[in-house]
Amino acid sequence: MIVRPKTGWFRMLFAWENSVQNTILAPLAIIFVLSLAALWGYRSSDAFLFALSPVPFSLIGVALAIFASFRNNACYERYWEGRKQWGTLTATTRDLVRFAVTVPGPAGVPTAAADTQAHAGGATQDARQVVALLTAFVQVLKHQLRDSDPAEVLRTLVGETQAREILGLAYRPYGLLALVQRRIVAWHHERRIGDVLLAAALAHIDTLTQAAGACERIRTTPVPYPYEVLLHRTTYFYCVLLPLGLVESVGWATPIIAVFISYAFLALHTIAGELEDPFGQDANDLPLDALAIHIERSMREAVGDTDLRPVPVPDARYRLD
Questions:
Q1: Mutual orientation of helices 120-145 and 195-220 as an angle, nearest 10°?
Q2: Using CA atoms, how far apart are residues 33 and 259, in angstroms rounded to an integer?
Q3: Over the stretch 181-229, which tens digit does the pLDDT of each residue have?
Q4: For the whole prediction, is pTM greater than 0.90?
């Protein structure tokens, strides 16, 4: 994700770093050359056969803009839903850790008292184990969404034995949630929490499961391929033929106008392609590394840890991963 301070309107006109200009520079250069060729042909021949009427380009441009807006809205909706689901993960993991720190009473205490009495030493140890499992859950989910290997971080957080067990699963985040749930159910069997608090804690587990499932749904269900192909072909054919439709009406301004209009359509097309998969590692994707660190910091702080990982900040290019 690009995180940079607000700039004035004049500097924004010339902003280059972390925009999509680098991606579409080659197509724009080709369109500029084609515009020069169309202008030269039109000026050097009284019977230039390739000059086209601008009317069809106006009609096609309106339709193309509507279609591009539809695809951009669909892709941004995926991006925003992904961010909302990670917001749910942040809030729910904090709730579970707060529950683990403050609620479970000492083993053997009657449930009515266990609901209100916290045993400092035991609760803290249990809470640290819950923090380790939930941190591993967030990290494994991040790696799953990015198709990367979580083995090293998993061994660090939960140990070799449990890491081997989780790595053998096809759906690793849910295996970690199962371990958290077993620990909460064990508190209930030990009469450290009552039925009401057990139901409340399991509801948080369900919320984490649903949020992880929603992220998987976004990751594994792309925008329908025919939309991608149709918009890609239409956009590039329109931009390539645009100089022929402008040369007769705008003359010497053809290269400038053609490149400017093409920039708008190609940039929208490129931005939508980046937002379609919000969990990737493009410049404008969600900063899952930073989000995972923020979740870890808040949970470890809740159990009294002070040696926390640094707060993520954008790099020199304003990029937050």
A1: 20
A2: 10
A3: 999 999 999 989 999 999 999 999 999 999 999 999 999 998 888 888 8
A4: no
Question: 157, 135 in Cβ contact below 8 A?
Answer: yes
Residue-wise pLDDT tens digits, 30-58: 999 999 998 888 888 766 667 677 788 88
- Output the six-digit token pair for 198: 């057990």
* Amino acid in position 192: R
